[in-house]
Amino acid sequence: MRILLVVSGSVAAYKALELTRLLRRDGAQVMAILTAGGARFVTREALAAITGERVHDDLWAAEAEIGHIRLARWPDLVAVVPASADLMAKMAHGIADDLATCVLLATRAKILVAPAMNPAMWAHPATQANIATLRARGVVIAGPDDGPMAEPESGPGRLVEPGALRDAIHAVLSDGPLKGRHVIVTSGPTHEAIDPVRYIANRSSGKQGHAIAAALAALGARVTLVSGPVAQPDPPGVAVARVESARDMLAACEAALPADAAICAAAVADWRTAREATQKMKKVPGEPPPPLDLALNPDILATLAAPGPRRPALVVGFAAETEAVVDNAIAKRARKGCDWIVANDVSGDVMGGAENAVHLVTEAGVEDWPRLPKQDVARRLAARVAEALA
Prior knowledge:
By secondary structure, the protein is an alpha/beta fold. The chain folds into two domains: 2-173, Rossmann fold, CATH 3.40.50.1950; 182-389, Rossmann fold, CATH 3.40.50. The chain contains 14 helices and 21 strands. It has helices at 15-25, 44-51, 59-65, 68-73, 85-93, 99-106, 119-123, 125-136, 162-173, 207-218, 246-256, 300-305, 325-336, 374-389; strands at 2-7, 29-34, 77-83, 110-115, 140-141, 145-148, 154-158, 182-187, 192-193, 199-200, 222-227, 239-242, 261-264, 271-273, 294-296, 314-321, 340-345, 355-356, 358-362, 365-368, 372-373. A hairpin with a 5-residue loop joins strand 6 (145-148) and strand 7. The longest helix is centred in the last third of the chain and has 16 residues, at 374-389. The chain is globular. The mean pLDDT is 89.
């Protein structure tokens, strides 16, 4: 891999050094462009030491030596890490007033952008419009994450961690075992409206489903992630359909077909209210609470697993259990008609937590996996999917 790293002005620029170390450990050749803003946070000498290459930071010096067009033609991928709001605005509007923006305008390589900025700047309509423009042009947007900032604030705008960025770059450039395959992944909870302000839901965070989508993309798959309401950032290089209810999720899954595989990791609500109130239900002093009549939601896993010409070759379900985990999962696999079930005990801190211990139930039997970070569970499952589809 030949990676051209553009480091722009953000306090998170120091993470570009760790990203470079990880990429070089993977065998990548990395060259860097340091903007004037980026140079306020990391030095040319530090980047040169980590990349093992001369760092470019001046348009006219580059023109005299290599030329920005040659520099633009060199990489397989240009990674803008971190990407400031200013640099993304220039990219969206075709402004080329320094070496970085000239190269970004001239390159034919794939581009990955990792935003990093204050949450208010990220949420501003101008920034969001620029992001939409870049996405429409095929630029991969990695993050941002939601978390504490350098200033005493917290929210979306935090640079994605170097390990996840490394995985995202591999996913964009992957010629992995799932190249040419399409996989649908569902993730997160569903929200079933009671009235305009209340809903039925569960504690699913979407961490496991989103990690699975990212792991599949890293193996070269074209991934459609159908996500309920979550706070997780979109996995880079993954098409995301955002939904609210179980009915919306089923419609989005069916719209994404055909697919080679479907992995139903979402914690879909089994029931919804039979009649959604059109106005907020009011508490009346002295009267009992109004009854909630429930209706069954559509069964997304069973629908996708049903025999037919549009059934994916591999359909995987999840079983979130609090007792008799394996026995319930075996019964669920038979009942739903799916190929595999990934079962886990959610009576502890699994929902919303960082780790998971699962049992993979297949026709061949039951595999007990150790407790692992959810990203590692996702990578192991993605590898098994690749083996099955091969």
